[in-house]
Structures are given as structure tokens and as C-alpha cells.
Amino acid sequence: MIDCYVNIYNDNDEFRIPLTDSGSYEVRENDKLVFHLIISEHDLLTLGEPVMVIGDIPTKFLKNENSPHGECHFVTCEPSYSHSSRYFFNFFGESEVTIYFEKSEGKTLTFRFNILARKENAKLAEEMLGFISDNVDDAVAICFSRSKNGGGFNSDEEHKFSKYDAVIYAVNYLSRTLPSFINDKKTHWKQKVILSQNGQPTGPDSVYWALTNLDKLSPSTAENYNIYFNNRGYHFDEQPKEVLIDDTNVYENIVINSFLYNADKFLYALTKHYSEFASKEVGYSDTEYVRFDHTMTKYAKIALKMRIKEIEENHALVKKLMFFYKKIINSKINPNIIPKITAFVAKKGHYREAFRLINIANLSSAPAFDDTNFLFGLKNLSIVYEITSLIMLHKSISEIFGVSLSLQSYREHSETNGFGGVAVNRPTGAVNNHFMFSGDTFQVELLYEPKIFPMASSTRPGDLIDTTNSYATSLYGKHHFCPDFVIKIHSKKWKKSLTLILDSKYKDARNVRDYDIPKLVPRYLFNIHSLSNDNSVTPIDLLIVLFPHDKAGTLVKTVSSKHFITGSHPVLPQALGTIYTPLNNGLDDKLKSLVQYYNLKMM
After folding, report:
1. pTM for the full model?
2. Radius of gyration (Cα) for the chain, nearest Å?
3. What's 523's DSSP letter?
4. What is the per-residue pLDDT across 207-250, written as a single tens digit (0 to 9) for each?
């Protein structure tokens, strides 16, 4: 037996919401929440102690020692009067709360919360979403361009692709292999009746044609008759005869033509739906709190229009392929046909691969027509600020260091892969997370949410390593750090590279100074190091916390002004916080001062 509920406190009101697995609930960002879990002693022995994760932050449960007999009652550690129980403060959009159990990795309880924001947060969200919308081409190029590592599905990735991705991948394959289907197509011999002046109806089909077209007979002289019946001669202007032809109306070709037919209908429906939504007018509610999807809708239209253009281009390609394949392997259409590997398909590589991709497309789930998903999958303010920071960092790096983007990819991180991960095909909806910028003097590497593990056999010089004495857990695996951004700056003029860690916090200067700097300095400045060529380790050079709210100031220092990065005698390592928004960029001048300082120190 497992029961869960949350007590919600706002102003002078208090109410309780029972929680069910996979349920969805709505709260305000400044609500104070106290979660309760009731579990039987038997289930507790089987499953183990519960752990709650709000977003991606673990939260402790406290056990009530006065629980009734046979039951165990747990409550989250932050009481209702504590500001720390505002788990979603400065949060906007969708978040998940998940309860794990120590002894059972498969057993989880998940609750989805939609957080309503104060209007000041909604206003800042509008600024960032407006920036992303104004730079939608850059955003798509940065976040979702295909990596240069080749394409393809492997067995582990097939289920991750949406129906649209899978359909277009199969369509592109059929486009590339069109010459193969021209030169090597499936046919079988088939008798066909044709009309000719030299024909002779001797076969069953041609005799049947003659018997059913007697109205075309005319009496004839003995010299011109070509049909003799009942001692009289008759004449057909053209007579039937049977010939053998290559017939392409076979199962293998029906599968391909039916797929193109279905793709045509699917893309038409997508275009129609997206176009209808993009034309909607969006207004605002006058309530004190604002829904994130309401704010998102206002800016999703720009991304939608770009998506429509992409779909229309692919739809035109499908129309073109339908015309060509109808000429090459003309067949009937069966929209419900299922691709199966026949002996012919197994022998022919182009048919075999086409069938595999068509099968993936058929099994893939259709996209959910949820308008808040269209703007890059942004579901809350934290992600909006991270993506805004990522786009702004691209611009800042390019301008300050005189470099341009030379390589981007999606990297998969694990302890065995080493720092930086290994390049793989980007899963649908995931953002590219590794970028290399190159120029005449500088080379800059930007990593988005890299995982930094302890030193291992795969660690190479230049890698970042986790030097804490923390240990692995069954719940979270090998201990590692995952900052929002790592920037490694290399210069031909420097003897040593610069390593920066940046974390985006949707907060103001006061909260960054009082909470985030004290927490992140020991975590990143003290416990992340870089491995040198001589196997020594060196600390990172600079920790920068980025924040968007300016109501409590725009800068957080941890050293005196003289030793600050823009001062007369800067020191490294150091930590700082700076405002970083499209309308208030406080980062660029710090990076410029850092480059000037390193130019003097390392030349």
C-alpha cells in the first residue's frame, strides 16, 4: 500500500491534493509545498527508503517515528513555514516530481506539475522567448542542426525518433536510391492482351476478348477475312494477341508506393494543422498568475512558420517521388499493408533497407499536436534561460574571440567515454551539446551540460575530472558533476588554456550571492580540475553564475574590486555572478578583460 498527497500553503490558505502516479496538477510558483508519503511496512522492506526528486534536485524525506502500526509515514524535510518549501519559486512551466525507492530501480511514482508564474516572471519570459523567436534561424542552426558524424538508425535509437523524423528519413533514402530501383526492381512475367493487325486470338484471354467484342466484326471477302466462323469469313480491323510483359504490380513495390501515399497524406495533415495554429490570435488573461503554455503560445507561431516551410519542402519531395516511382514500379496502393521481408527483399540491399525504414516509420508514434511543444521543446523558465544563454554565448564567443562555428555535434556522456563524450546521432528533441569555434588566433570549445566524472583509465590530458570523495549510489550511478556550460579557450599566443564553468540560474543577484555562490564554489572551483600533460591536476580558472533578474543588482563579486577580473590586479581562480539577458549583457566585458589579462600573463 502506497499513498501520497501534498499540502499546499499560500497566503492564509491551506489545502490538500491527493497525488496519483502520472497525474497532473497546477500550483503557483510561490506556493509552499509539503509532500507526504504513506507506505506499508511490508512494502517499505521490499522497496527500500523513498527518495524524492523535484525537477533534478533530490529532496529528503523524514520518517515519522509515531506512524500507526503497520504503516510508515514520510514527510519532506522543509516545513510549511520555511521559504525553502517553495520548491517551484522563480519557476514557470512544467516540472516533474518523482519518488524513487532504494531497493527497486523499476518502481517509481511520477507527478507532473504545471507552475503558474507571477507576471514579473512572465514578462522576463516574454523577453527571452522574443529573443529566441527573433533569432529562430540561429537557434535552429545551433540547437538542432545535424551533426557531421553521419546519419542512420541503430537498434538502440530507433524508438527515439518521432514519426515525422522516421518518415522523412525513409523518404530521403528512397530519393537517394532511386537509380537502384530503376536498375534492379521486382517484377514477374504476366500475359497481356494487345491489339494488332497481325494478331491471332489463340490464347484464352484473346479468345475471350474476341467473343465479347463481336460487334466489331464485319463481313469480309475471302481475301481479307481473319476470322472464319460457320463457313463464313469475318474481319477485325485489329485482332488481340497475348504477349508476356514485366509486371511491377507485386507485393514489394506495393509496399513502397503505399508508403509514399501514406507519407503524402501524413505531411498534408501536419501542414494543415500547423498552418491553422500559426494563424490563431493569442490574447492574455488578466489574472495575477500566468500559465507558461499561454506565454509560449504567443511565440510558438514564428517557429511554427519555419516548421511549416520545412514540412512543405519535404512534402514536395514526396510528391516528386510518387511520380517517379509510379513510372518505375507502378503498382496498386494498399494504405494498410505491412512490410515483410520476402526472399527477394532479403537478397536486395536497397529493398531491404527501404523496408526497414518504412517499418520504423509505421511503428513510430505520431507527433502530439501540442502547440507548446513546437518552440524547441521549451517547457519551463529554467530551460528557456539555458537556451537563451546558449544562443547568446554563441554570439559572444564569435564576437569576442574572432572565431566562427566550425563543428557541432551531440555527445553522449558516460564514465567510459571520457570527458566530452562520444559523438552520436542526436536524438529527436535533444539539443546539440558540443561546439567548436575556430579562428586565426583562438580556438574555443563550448560544451552544454557535460558530465564530469572522476579520473579513470579513459581520462586524457586536458580533460576535466571530478576530484571529490563522493561515491556512487545505486540511484544516481557514478558520482559526477553536470554544470550548464564549460568553455575551454585555446590561443596560439598562450602557454596554457583557459577553462571556464558557467551556470545559468533563474534568480536575482541576492539569491546568487547568498545561496548559489557558496554552494557552487566548493563544488566547481574546489572539486573540478583539469588533467595536464604531465599528469598533474590544475583547478579551473573561473566560475561565472549567469542570472536574468536585475532587481537586486547586476553583479556579484567574491573578491575586492582591485582583484576582480576587470580590476587592476585580477586573480584566478575566482567566482562571480553577472546578469546575462538579451537586453542586459553583463558577460562580454568580463570575457574581454580575461583575454587581455591572459594575453599579458601567458605570452
Report:
1. 0.63
2. 34
3. I
4. 677 667 776 666 766 666 666 666 666 676 677 677 666 788 99
